[in-house]
Design brief:
248 residues; alpha/beta; Rossmann fold; 8 helices; 11 strands
Length: 248
């Protein structure tokens, strides 16, 4: 007997539990705004939430809503494709129709430095979650929303890179061979969430865009962490504030 259910067959079959049925059971009438900023870096979202009358909800993630704003912040879901998809499936079932993801990413190219901003236009599905939502090896950001985000960055005179990302499930299994391969194919960043989010967005018809701050570099001979670089936190705050303007 084969232990693994055929993945090509799985993609064609309906799910037993749908997000709507799940949230009808556990959300107790909660409704969310039509737009969301998704960020796994919880302390930075909390800083913004403390500045105004944001109300915290919880449903597989921390959700911050404001009575006068048609967007919310979603954070506190952990990291990786399964975590972000669990949170966002429920958010979409509760009314979210547009998403901007703000996170950290590692650089694969020498010219992309720690602290730099990167807009992702497409992501390679090397994770396990995205393959449950799409048969494609590469998933793309929503073009209209991504252009709108880049326009906001240009208006603020902020420098940024645009390019392809690689999503993986295990940062401690990133190999030199993979990095070399993706460098040659002009991949500029690596993260753990984007492919799953884009794949979910395409399946649920929810426009998604993603922007990162580079926190470390894998583009040289060795891994170069730079997590204490003050520019990283500074630019994360800038992006969160800019994304609010992009969704208003």
């Amino acid at each position: 007997m084969s232990i693994i259910f055929p993945p090509t067959l799985k993609k064609r079959l309906p799910a037993l539990i749908t997000p709507k049925v799940y949230v009808d059971t556990v959300a107790h009438g909660l409704k969310l705004p039509s737009r969301a900023i998704v960020c796994p870096i919880t302390p930075f979202v909390q800083m913004i939430a403390k500045r105004g009358d944001w109300k915290k909800r919880f449903l597989s993630a921390d959700i911050y809503c404001h009575d006068e704003k048609d967007f919310c912040f979603i954070t506190g879901f952990g990291c990786g494709g399964p975590s972000v998809v669990l949170a966002i499936e429920q958010a979409v079932a509760l009314g979210v129709k547009e998403i901007i993801f703000v996170g950290l990413a590692g650089s694969l190219q020498e010219e992309v430095l720690p602290g730099d901003m990167v807009v992702c236009d497409e992501s390679i599905c090397a994770d396990g979650t995205s393959s449950l939502y799409t048969a494609k090896e590469i998933v793309r950001a929503n073009k209209k929303l991504t252009v709108h985000l880049m326009d906001k960055l240009h208006m603020q005179k902020l420098d940024f890179h645009v390019g392809r990302n690689w999503s993986t499930d295990a940062i401690f299994r990133e190999t030199k061979a993979e990095i070399k391969h993706y460098q040659k194919n002009h991949v500029i960043t690596v993260d753990m969430e984007t492919s799953a989010l884009f794949a979910l967005g395409a399946r649920r018809k929810v426009p998604c865009a993603a922007v990162y701050v580079v926190s470390d570099s894998l583009g040289g001979k060795t891994w170069q962490p730079d997590f204490k670089n003050p520019l990283i936190g500074q630019n994360l705050r800038r992006l969160l504030e800019l994304c609010q303007a992009a969704l208003m």
